[in-house]
Amino acid sequence: MSFLTSLFGRKTSAPIARDRLQILLAHERAGEGQSELIAKLQEEILEVIKRHISVDQDKVQIKMDRGAGVSMLEIDIEVPEAKPAAKTA
Amino acid sequence: MAKVLVVTSGKGGVGKTTSTAALGAALAQTGKNVVVVDFDVGLRNLDLVMGAERRVVFDLINVVQGDAKLAQALIRDKRVETLSILPASQTRDKDALTPEGVARVIEELREKFDWVICDSPAGIERGAQLAMYHADQAVVVTNPEVSSVRDSDRIIGMLDSTTERAKKGEKIDKHLLLTRYDPARAARGEMLRTEDVLEILSIPLLGIIPESEEVLRASNLGMPVTLSNPTSAPSRAYFEAVRRLEGETLDVSVPTERKGLFDWLFKRSVA
C-alpha cells in the first residue's frame, strides 16, 4: 500500500493531524485568557486610533494565525482619506 | 476501600457508555462489587446498553432528591450478580442534580461497592463536572481523531482543576482508553497512531479497544461486550484494561479477531 501511495504522491493524513493538534493544544493549554487577550488588544488598539481618526467598524479586519513558534495578530484598518476641501466654483 | 472512577471524554459518541458497561461488567466478572452510575440526565442510555431498560423504576435524581432510597433505585444485573446499575432520569432536567445530593449518593455507594463507575455525559458543563467531581480515577475515552483528542485535552485539564481531589491538592489518576482504533489504518498513516495520541495527551494508556462489529452487536443485544462475547478482540482489550485498573502492569497490545477460514470466505462473499 505504501508504495502505491508514494506512487501517486498522496501524503498520509495522520502526521498532518498530529502536527495540527500539537500546535493547537500548545496554544489552548497556554491559557484560556488567550482569546480574551486578543479581544482586549483589538479593543485598545482601536481606541487609540479612534482618538485621531474616525474609523468605520465595518472597515476593520482582524485576523489571527497561530503558528508553532509564533502567532500573528493582524489588524487591518481602512483609514478614510481626509476629505478634500470643498471646491468653490 | 471503594474507588470512584469517572468515564469521560468531552466529545460525544466516542464510546463512554459502551466502555462504562464493558469495564463495569469486566470488573464484576472478576468478582468485584461494581455499580455503574449514569450521569447523563435527560439522555440516559446506560440502562439500554446494559439491557436493563425495562427494569427502571427509580433513578439517580429520585435518590438525590430523597424521593427513593438508594436500594430501591439500584438494579441488579441478571447475568453478573455483583454488578448493579443506577440509571439516570429520562424526564428530569440536569439541574435537578445538586452537588450535595450527588455527594451523599456517592458516599453511600462507596460503602456498598468496591467500584463506583460514573458514566459522564458529553460536554464540559454541569453534568460532566458533577460526574467527575468525586472521582479518584478517570478513564478518558478518546478516538484517534482530531476533535476527540482536542476535547480529551480539555477534559484532562478539568480533571486537574475542578475535581474534589484537585481542590484538595491531591492527584487524580488519569488513564487513556483509545477506542475505535484500527491498527491497519494507523500503520498506513491514515489514522493517528497510539504513540501520537499518547505523546499529545501525555497520560498513561489503559488500553486500546479495536474497532469491532462486536461492539454494535453487544449494544443491539443489551449486553456489555465482555458478556456477549468475552473472547472477542474488544472484550480481551477491556479485560486487560480492568487488570491495569486493579494495578497490574501489562504490556499494551491491540487484540485482533481470531478469524477462521470460514469467516474469511463468508466476509468475502458478502462484501
UniProtKB/TrEMBL annotation, chain A:
The keyword Cell cycle applies. Keywords: Cell cycle, Cell division. InterPro entries: MinE (IPR005527), MinE_sf (IPR036707). GO terms for biological process: cell division; regulation of division septum assembly. It comes from the Bacteria. Belongs to the MinE family. Prevents the cell division inhibition by proteins MinC and MinD at internal division sites while permitting inhibition at polar sites. This ensures cell division at the proper site by restricting the formation of a division septum at the midpoint of the long axis of the cell. This is Cell division topological specificity factor. The lineage of its organism: Bacteria, Pseudomonadati, Pseudomonadota, Alphaproteobacteria, Acetobacterales.
From TrEMBL, chain B:
GO terms for molecular function: ATP binding; ATP hydrolysis activity. Pfam families: CbiA. Residues 5-225 form the CobQ/CobB/MinD/ParA nucleotide binding domain. ATP binds at K11, G12, G13, V14, G15, K16, T17, T18. The keyword Cell division applies. The keyword Kinase does not apply. InterPro entries: CobQ/CobB/MinD/ParA_Nub-bd_dom, MinD, MinD_FleN, P-loop_NTPase, ParA/MinD_ATPase. Keywords: ATP-binding, Cell cycle, Cell division, Nucleotide-binding, Septation. GO terms for cellular component: cytoplasmic side of plasma membrane; cytosol. NCBIfam families: minD_bact (TIGR01968). Interacts with MinC and FtsZ. Belongs to the ParA family. MinD subfamily. This is Septum site-determining protein MinD.
